[in-house]
Amino acid sequence: SDFCSLMHLVKLDLSKNRLQQLPLDFGRLVNLQHLDLLNNRLVTLPVSFAQLKNLKWLDLKDNPLDPVLAKVAGDCLDEKQCKQAAVKVLQHMRAIQSEQDRQRQRKLQAEREMEKKREAEQRAKEAQERELRKREKAEEKERRRREYDAQKAAKQEMEKKTKKETVQTRKPASSSRPPPPPRHKHSWSRSVLRVLLFVLLCVLCTLAACKLTELQRQPLCVSLNTLYEDVFAALQNHKTLQNMLQQNSQQ
């Protein structure tokens, strides 16, 4: 794992080692100029290989390389072909690196756009939920207002109906009673009756005094006693006459 930290290497011979792959950070060997990978089991090269900017010589013979990479590398049968292999492979790996960078950028851009889209959708969803809650709140408020108005109207209607029934109940009762007699007439009758009773009482008291006390010899009492006897006799005669008339009518 620490091999790629040997950044001062200039010439490296890894031929005939049955290597199946190179470290991913192989491109850290930036001072490498001569690289021999003859007779290994390499199929591809790491993308960081494009960073070997000082590479001048490369041998990839006798490796099961990818057909495209094998065509780019060509044969390394002499000095010239090995130098051309180094140049062409570097160019090819740089193109791959650029394409990967572009793909990575496109992926990042797509992820950013997707993230923006998700954020926009989330904001739209939140705005829709806020609008829905606001509408539900307004509807709830309107429903409560209608219920309050209905209860108020029902209460007013009930009070009106109760008042009407009370008026209707009182009206026949008041009409069925005879009108009371005038107060002044009733008061006058009572006054006359009281006066008559008072006079009668006075007369009786006077008669009793004239009959039972020593005042019966007084001239006033004598007159009253005579008048009393005359009235009493007249009443008896009147009663006797009525009895006679009644007997005659029966016969």
UniProtKB/TrEMBL annotation:
Identification of the protein by name: Leucine-rich repeat-containing protein 59
Residue runs in coiled coils: none
Composition-biased stretches (Basic and acidic residues): 99-168
Organism, as annotated: Podiceps cristatus (Great crested grebe)
Region (Disordered): 97-187
InterPro entries noted in UniProt: Leu-rich_rpt, Leu-rich_rpt_typical-subtyp, LRR-SigEffector_domain, LRR_dom_sf
Signal sequence interval, chain numbering: none
Domain of life: Eukaryota
Alphabetical UniProt keywords: Leucine-rich repeat, Repeat
